[in-house]
Amino acid sequence: MRNITYAFWGLLVLSSLLWLAAEPTVFQSANFFALRGAMVQHSGIIAMAAMSVAMILALRPRWPERWLGGLDKMYRLHKWLGIAALCLSVIHWLWSQGPKWAVGWGWLSRPARSPRPPLENPIEQAFANLRGTAEGIGEWAFYATILLIALALIKHFPYRLFYKTHRLLAVAYLVLAFHAVVLIDFDDWATPVGAAMAVLLTSGSYAAVIVLLRRVGAGRQVEGRIASLKHYPGVHVLEAEIDVPGGWPGHRPGQFAFATSDVSEGAHPYTIASAWHEKDRRITFIAKELGDHTSRLREKLRVGQIVKVEGPYGCFDFDDGPSRQIWIGGGIGITPFIARMKYLALEKRAHPDQPPPAVDLFHTTADVDETALAKLRADAEAANIRLHILIDARDGRLSGDRIRAAVPQWRDASIWFCGPARFGEALQRDFAAHGLPVEERFHQELFAMR
Questions:
Q1: If DSSP codes are grouped into helix, strand and coil, which group holds residue 38?
Q2: How far is it, in rounded angstroms, from Cα 270 to Cα 256?
Q3: pLDDT digits (tens, 9 = 90+) for 65-77
Q4: Distance CA 13, CA 9 (A)
Q5: Does the pLDDT of residue 114 top 80, yes or no?
Q6: Which of 48, 160, 357, 394 is the most exposed place for a label (fewest CB within 10 A)?
């Protein structure tokens, strides 16, 4: 979380500083309307910088994933940047329209405009001729952006509709990019802020075209075939084993992939619940019936069906310094730990003299399926993992105190959490209050892609 916070504020501050370097006299504006013109420029540039980076992140690029902590963190940054762009766009619109309203209401008097000298640069003249068009379509694109971002933030808005409407933001972005190119002060294009905006707007426009062509992640996609399906009614979970061809690069335990079984629904992320066997070339997904799409999977999927798999993604890979680890899987959040246990079991068979891992796994669940729990116990035994199962109705809720009582060496451990976000945040605060350096040793999967 720390790095995505740095990236978020760093982008906004750096964009502001570059603009201030190009407009050092902004605070010496002769009158309110001169200040208003500067603020329209500033808010517009910062809004487009945020929206451009958000659009680039929509391509799920690999190069920033490790530094940002995984694709789940990148999507959180994407969301923050979208919200920031929305707020800054509203500010930009108010600076643009508010003074016009004030003049109409008689609250302000517009200063007399002196005649503008003729423009000698043909490109600048072309931009000047397009100002009216850019302002008009930019305003309508702004209204559309507000609506589309608002829909994306409504959790109860169905995913299949979100998938379709959110792609329209790419169209709005292209219109707003045209709006920005025409209306940014022409002289600023020769400054560092102009160079930065040229790179961001070009990259963002490329990303928007890729999104509209539905080519996001195309180079990381393979077609797999469903080999088996198993339903666990007690926990409302469907397990799907998928055979993947030679194009799949393999994965580390804890990573996830996007799977598409219905083009109209789009790609959905699922944590991979299996270790990788190069000879077997099979991956397992576990999907819990949580929404409109996952609740219908049991009726829609069938053995032999072709599905598209994209990935792998994620940095929830159990790779850190401490020799002791504490794993916490809440509900369906147990999935990455299943994959890790299967991997450790393979390592144990390959290297029987290797000392067992110092790991305690806490699985807390409100739903119970004895078959699923038996498989979990078998996986833990095969991997030499200490398993603690807590069923809410029988054992009560898991807390930091219970974990510390069960693992006296907790101060020497790192914690890996996957489950409900608020539960993870509460545990992180609890361990921080007891002196654990959570920034380095509390790892939480932010498994929310919208």
A1: helix
A2: 6
A3: 989 988 989 999 9
A4: 6
A5: no
A6: 394
